[in-house]
Amino acid sequence: MVMQGTDMKIAETPTEGLTDHTTPDAYQQWLDDEGVLVHKAFYFPNIKEIEVGPWERKGGKGAVIHIDNRHMPNDCHVVEINPGGKSEPEHHMYETNFYIVAGRGATTIWIDEKNKHTFEWKEGSLFVVPLNAWYQHFNGSGDEPARYLCTTNAPPMMRLFRDNDFMFNNDHMFKGRYSGEEDAFSGGGKLYNKRIWESNFIPNAPDMALYGWKERGAGGINAMLSMGQNNMGNHISEFPIGTYKKAHRHGPGAHLVLLSGDSGYSLIWTKEDRSDMIKCDWQVGTMVIVPSDGTFHQHFNSGTKRARYMALRSGDGGFNDPLAPWKGADASITEGGWQIEYTDEEKEIHEIFEAELAKKGAQCNMKAFIPYCTGNAGVTSERET
């Protein structure tokens, strides 16, 4: 049985498992002190419609998305800056990834008051603020709010140090990461290892160039993003019409945001018999979070356009097994990895996909990979359309 994502609440893990009974949870205490609205869901049909509440320090309204999981390495801040508004200047000892959901504006970054740099952004821009650098956001519109997502590794950092003065008032500047370079946020970058793009600022993530990732299957292309010399990592993937990615698992915390495409869905499950499998339908702006360690997830393009999504992660997201670093989310589970090959997946997975395509009168293009597919051969490599 496949349950719709909106029909089921993920089980919450008690916070007492995070620390012993004599030590307060520093991250939870910070949330309480901020008085910010907190969401504990893993599926949001449209990030533009996530409810926000007062959060004046951020420039208007906001909310925090945090799944109460002892292994969750990150959270997500949803912030709206008031028309013509600005955030308060801040710096902190946790990393950030900013994605502009709506609006236009600018951000000023500095490590000393005499050397400030400002860059402009718009809907679709993705950037980082280097660790502990000062920054301030400005809404460039006097009529409309600007909204952004910001994933952070604040939960483990706050629980590690348990000292807000250290977290928010530390004057050490990490000049090895950022020392005020004028071109640090120019939008330029460097490609290495064939599909790793190094940059602090991506002007338009929905349209950036992507490269082959044949390991994930069915004509997919990808760019792994190295930003701000952060431990946090991101990637952007795209796959053709009438195809789907291979199921895989890794550590929790990947925040998947659909950037383009007109229809599709993700399936997530943890049990071997898939009795807890949940279907999360897509539209542009849908966000699905991998909620726990060992959660299998699989992404399907059942629409009429190529589908592109962005994954905002913490660290390597558990993509590699520390005991077998040559394996991980790209390697088959039959070889000790965390990926289910097309030849090993249950027939039900493909049947669900063909049923979704039939609803739209669309054609499946997976015959080259799935022998019992009733559609076309479609794509056969990562560079075909």
Short recap of the structure:
With about 375 residues, this protein is mainly beta. It has helices at about 25-35, 155-160, 165-170, 345-360, and strands at about 5, 35-40, 45, 55, 60-65, 75-80, 95-100, 105-110, 115-120, 125, 135-140, 145-150, 190, 195-200, 200, 210, 220-225, 235-240, 245-250, 255-260, 265-270, 280, 285-290, 295-300, 305-310, 320, 325-330, 340. It has four helices and 28 strands.
Describe this structure as you would to a colleague.
The strands form six sheets. Strands 3, 13, 14, 16, 17, 18, 20, 23 and 25 form a nine-stranded mixed beta sheet that branches. The longest helix has 13 residues. The chain is mostly beta strands. α1 packs across α2. It has four helices and 28 strands. The protein starts with a strand and ends in a 26-residue tail after the last helix. About 6% of the residues have low confidence. It folds into two domains: 155 residues, Jelly Rolls (Sandwich), CATH 2.60.120; 170 residues, Jelly Rolls (Sandwich), CATH 2.60.120.10.
The CATH topology of the largest domain: Jelly Rolls
Q: Fraction of residues in helices?
A: under 10%
Mean pLDDT: 88
Overall body shape: globular
Q: Please summarize the sheet with the most strands.
A: 9 strands, mixed
What labels describe this entry?
385 residues, mainly beta, Jelly Rolls, 2 domains, 9-stranded mixed beta sheet, 4 helices, 28 strands
Topology:
Elements: E1 3-4, H1 26-34, E2 37-39, E3 43-44, E4 53-55, E5 60-65, E6 75-81, E7 96-102, E8 104-110, E9 116-122, E10 126-127, E11 134-139, E12 146-152, H2 154-161, H3 164-169, E13 190-192, E14 196-198, E15 201-202, E16 211-212, E17 221-226, E18 234-239, E19 247-248, E20 255-260, E21 265-269, E22 278-281, E23 287-289, E24 296-300, E25 307-312, E26 320-321, E27 324-328, E28 339-340, H4 347-359
Parallel strand pairs: 1-22, 2-5, 14-17
Antiparallel strand pairs: 3-23, 4-5, 5-6, 6-12, 7-10, 7-12, 8-9, 8-11, 10-15, 13-14, 16-17, 17-18, 18-25, 19-28, 20-23, 20-25, 21-22, 21-24, 26-27
Helix pairs in contact: 1-2
